[in-house]
Amino acid sequence: MTDTLTVRSDVRVRRQTLADLLRENVIWAVLVFVVIILSLASDVFLTPLNILNILRQISILGIVAIGMTFAMIGGSFDLTVGATMGLATVVVIQLQPVDPQSAAVAVVGGLLAGLLVGVVNGVLVGRLETNSVVTTIGTLYAVWGITLIYTKARHIWVVGMYPPLAALGTGRLGPFPLPIFAFAITAVLGHLALTATRFGRYLYATGGNSASARLSGINVGRVRLVSYMLSGLAAAIAGIVIAARVQNVDPSFGVGFEFDVLAAVILGGTSLFGGRGSVLGTVAGVLLLGVLGNAMTLMGISYQFQLMIRGIILVAAVAANVIVRRRRG
Amino acid sequence: MNDGITPVLQMIGLSKSFPGVQALDAVDFDVRAGEIHALVGENGAGKSTLIKILGGALQPDQGEIVLRGEKTVFHNPREALDTGIATINQELMLIPQLSVAENILLGRLPQGQFGRVDWDSLQDHAREALSTLGVKLDPDTLVESLSVAQQQATEIARALSRQADIIIMDEPTSALAEQEVDHLLETVSKLREQDKAVIFITHKLDEVFRVADRITVLRDGQKIGTLVASDTSPAEVVTMMVGRSVDSLFAKEESEIGEPVLEVRNLTRKGAFYDVSLTLHRGEILGLAGLIGAGRTDLVRALFGVDTLDSGELWVNGKRVERLTPERLIEAGVGLAPEDRKRDGLVLGMTVSDNLALVALRSLTRWGLRNRAREQKVATEQFSDLSIQAPSLATEVMTLSGGNQQKVVIGKWLANQPRILVLDEPTRGIDIGAKAEVHAIMQRLAKGGVAILLVSSELIEIMNVSDRILVMYEGRVTGEFTHGEATEEKIMASATGHAPVAFSAQRDGKQGEDD
């Protein structure tokens, strides 16, 4: 399983294998277990239609969660993501993308809105070193307020959306809805950014020990700023996909979503204290949440109870995170 | 019972293994009332495991603990504490924002009516514990305003007030300046007069010979022997510890000293150091001596761009470096292995190879993309050059011993091929063998033309390794000696502000000109 290659007689270099990755992501085992149980319990659960349905539903959560994973590995929380996604959705629809030009403007506008929120959070937390939880909650309210002002607090929609843009939300490639591809591409890019780039190493070092990272010549503030920009960007991409899919939006859309995202990221094994985490883990956390949500709906559990269960899952994920950390010593 | 010969505590045939390591192998150990028993050995020899078992934090695989003639099993630290065994760790367990008295009686604050704290009784108890120790400390002082030695005294007083009669001290002097060590050793001697049994763990043999009655040497989990201190010599103990003769430990090798590479002019950071100038040459090891708090660590942190400066200039290879940041200094070829390697030197949760490659990453990546083969190559080179002892490059550094962690810190700088290396207390808390290796690495680097600025609080080390020694006192340079001139007396005189008159006058004159 673990292949070792000998470089010199006294040095063993272990390659990270898939087995290692899985070992670090117990969550995948939990996911498989839950899927097996649900398949046995329900006839509907393991049907292609239902699986595709789950995948489409989790795509948005997944894209945002991958962004948040970057902020968390760097040692900072980003609780603004739900509001950022809402802002991006609103920007796209408000700009009325009905032809190629307006569609381009709307998409760029949505992305810029997300990046801008990331820059604000990144400058505050990364450069000024403010507390990330309080800062991003503050930004959440500010962004929400801006969104309401921008829409005059009214429900907005677009009629006759430019078809290629609309396809991003509603189209299919074979049997697969396109949002699934948006999620998959984000996941692959996110994974590569974390594992194959210098920035990825700097991010882990910054989250693992910012003092050591700084003394190693890493511009810790800039690394955190970039992680927030990526988080904002991911939230904006999710917002654009939503806009393309539903083509109308409530001005408070997205607020509250950050807690689902947080639950997915923490379930995926990303440390609350930074320095640990992976896209692979986050993807599993997202899938698990999606599967559980779907199961609850199939079982006809009411919204109130689902809300309660989601809260319990979030707290359980935090507890598991702390226990794992304690066991590592 | 207390005839001074019957041990209060005996450990018989203790064995403990961890995955892949036999930490203790059938070790016998005992300590008597009124005795100071030193436990020595290199890191990884099994000292920590032994005292953890004694303190109830670990359970032995085999063997037994006999306490006051009765076989005893400790399931947790609480039980050990309740039977009168107190452990004083390297990292002190005090709450800085509370007073000395509150810390001494922490968790057992005397209560008056309605659950209020009975402050008078608190004062009395604390005063009693402090006077038993012969320590003059105001119980109302906040712990944060105490020196490290005074904090340790507070912790010992806490152990006494808990009626502990077996006191384990793990590396108590590692964070102390030389004068403070004297105070602590006096305190420890007082414990013997109180008929306490003391187990004293340290790396510093001179301390062992100043206070210990008996010495037990561990190596690789085995007991090598127990000696009566008055019948043995440091040389014999060292040989037992390392299993080889250590004549070659401190042999200063000459290296060729070249042109100036680092020039520091009139650096000032208010409250830390004032008007410090120094020049470091190619191939030179420049020692920076002084007491803890003299401003040496502040100085090297500031010149590496970690802390800000109020004034002064820094020149590297004849070029002035402005707006100092670690990034700029690294680009200029400077590296800093900081004083606290766990806090500032390593990312403990990352692997050995990731830590080793961290600084060099900027040159190992292209367009921001990693080249893992090159990273592995660089990490592997340092791993074998420095003979880092770890199961593999993929091991997390938090599991390594202090000496090996220090080698990783040095290795991550060497991987970037620095021209100037600043080492702040590179051998603190590491064992003799690893220390000798670090000294050898420094000599090798100097021979290869690297300029080294060494901060060390150990006089012997700084005198043996340095080509030139600067001494700091209260944030100012108060003395400069060549390798040949330096004596302990001269350095200590400068380090305590009693520098020769001629030198002070010269410096004062210079300052007058500058102002």
Structure description:
The complex is a heterodimer of chains A (329) and B (515). Chain A has 329 residues and is mainly alpha-helical. Chain A has one domain (25-35, 43-328): ABC transporter involved in vitamin B12 uptake, BtuC (Orthogonal Bundle), CATH 1.10.3470. Helices cover 73% and strands 5% of the residues of chain A. In chain A, strand 4 (172-173) and strand 5 form a beta hairpin. In chain A, helix 3 (48-73) crosses helix 13. Chain A is globular. Chain B is α/β, with parallel strands linked by helices. Chain B has three domains: 7-242, P-loop containing nucleotide triphosphate hydrolases (Rossmann fold), CATH 3.40.50.300; 255-333 and 418-514, Rossmann fold (3-Layer(aba) Sandwich); 347-417, no CATH class. Helix content of chain B is 35%, strand content 24%. Chain B has 19 helices and 20 strands. Chain B has helices at residues 47-54, 77-82, 100-104, 119-133, 148-161, 178-193, 205-211, 234-242, 296-303, 326-331, 341-345, 352-357, 361-364, 372-385, 402-414, 432-447, 459-465, 488-495, 501-514, and strands spanning 7-18, 21-32, 35-40, 62-67, 70-72, 85-88, 166-170, 197-201, 214-219, 222-228, 260-269, 273-281, 285-290, 311-316, 319-320, 334-337, 420-424, 451-455, 468-473, 476-482. Chain B has a six-stranded mixed β-sheet with strand order 6-7-8-3-9-10, with helices on both faces. A six-stranded mixed β-sheet of chain B has the order 16-17-18-13-19-20, with helices on both faces. In chain B, helix 4 (119-133) crosses helix 5 (148-161) and helix 5 (148-161) packs parallel to helix 6. Chain B starts with 6 loop residues before the first strand and ends with a helix. The A-B interface holds A 4, 7-8, 10-14, 16, 195-202, 204-205, 208-209, 211-219, 275-276, 328-329 and B 304, 306, 325-327, 329-331, 336, 338, 343-350, 353-354, 357-359, 361-362, 365, 368-370, 376, 380, 383-384, 387, 391-394, 398, 412.
